[in-house]
Amino acid sequence: MGKNVLLVDDSSTMRKIIGRSLRQAGIDFDNIFEAADGLEALEILEKEDVDIVLSDINMPNMDGISFLREKSGRDGIKDIPVLMISTETGDDIIGEAKSLGAIGAIKKPFTPDKVNEVLGPLL
Amino acid sequence: MDISKNIIESAQEIFSTMVMMEISVNGENMMTSIPLTESISGVIGMAGTHKGVLAIHIPNKVAMAITGSFLGMDVDEINEDVEDAVGELANMLGGNVKSILSENGKDIDLSLPTTITGQQYDFQPTKDAERIIIPFSCDAGEFTIDMQLEK
């Protein structure tokens, strides 16, 4: 069975670019779900079968840190891995994301090679 | 602190990796701007130990070409895709500037990006601020990156 990914970013442009980078990196997913913020992401995780989440940090309504915090308290979805893709690179915020369960981070801007390097071993 | 070299390198990295477009500096840095016509600006605010704003000002036709390259499709009007793409450019520039300022002891937070579009408008600081405006060119035309940081 193939894998499904959830892309979480308030920029539709960035969600398209991440999708493009996944294809260029040779990483195929059966389904690519999209959410514009953490709230939408939680709704999708509750009803769809998602294998991995790629999430921005700075988003309106519910940011990436709050999304991780909320997700970690929900039994059905807390173990779905989340990789942060963000302009944020500070040790404090990435450290906080990892303490809430994020498995790593990719900094924007990124190349398909970088996506493959970080994401490939996780799949 | 001369941040213009860092901004140039950041912009070139963003455009080459994400927009698939090469850009180059097109003249000397400026400290005052001219009115913007038929343009779109992506703006991101900075606050914390230092306040300021970072903006990218792009003529509409150049913004449409940049968005088309971003998305791999033809774009022939200023629409939500263009606004989103320009906002995301400002966002990524802001992220890099934040990192650079942080390395120099300036701890700032970024706002969410916003965009302004219009037939003719001015973009001017209201407070006394250090300002640099870097002119760039690409195959589609010219644009500027404008950073203002409180003194």
Care to describe what's here?
The complex is a heterodimer of chains A (123) and B (151). The longest helix of chain A has 13 residues, at 12-24. Chain A has a single domain (4-122), classed as 3-Layer(aba) Sandwich (Rossmann fold), CATH 3.40.50. Chain A is built from five helices and five strands; from the N terminus they run βαβαβαβαβα. Chain A has helices at 12-24, 38-47, 64-72, 91-99, 112-119; strands spanning 4-8, 31-35, 52-55, 82-86, 104-107. A five-stranded parallel β-sheet of chain A has the order 2-1-3-4-5, sandwiched between helices. By secondary structure, chain B is α+β, with helices and mostly antiparallel strands. Chain B has one domain: 3-Layer(aba) Sandwich (Chemotaxis protein chec). Chain B has three helices and seven strands; from the N terminus they run αβββααββββ. In chain B, strands 1, 2, 3, 4, 5, 6 and 7 form a seven-stranded antiparallel β-sheet that branches. In chain B, a hairpin with a 3-residue loop joins β2 (36-48) and β3 (52-59). Classes of the chains: A alpha/beta (123), B alpha+beta (151). At the A-B interface, α1 of A face α1, α2 and α3 of B.
Main sheet: strand order of chain A: 2-1-3-4-5
Q: What is the CATH superfamily classification of chain A?
A: Response regulator
- CATH fold label of chain B: Chemotaxis protein chec
Estimate the mean pLDDT confidence of chain B.
92
Rg of chain A computed from alpha carbons, rounded to a whole number of angstroms:
13 Å
Strand content of chain B: 35-45%
- Secondary-structure arrangement, i.e. CATH architecture of chain A: 3-Layer(aba) Sandwich
Output the keywords:
heterodimer, A: 123 residues, alpha/beta, Rossmann fold, 5 strands, 40% helix, B: alpha+beta, Chemotaxis protein chec, seven-stranded antiparallel beta sheet
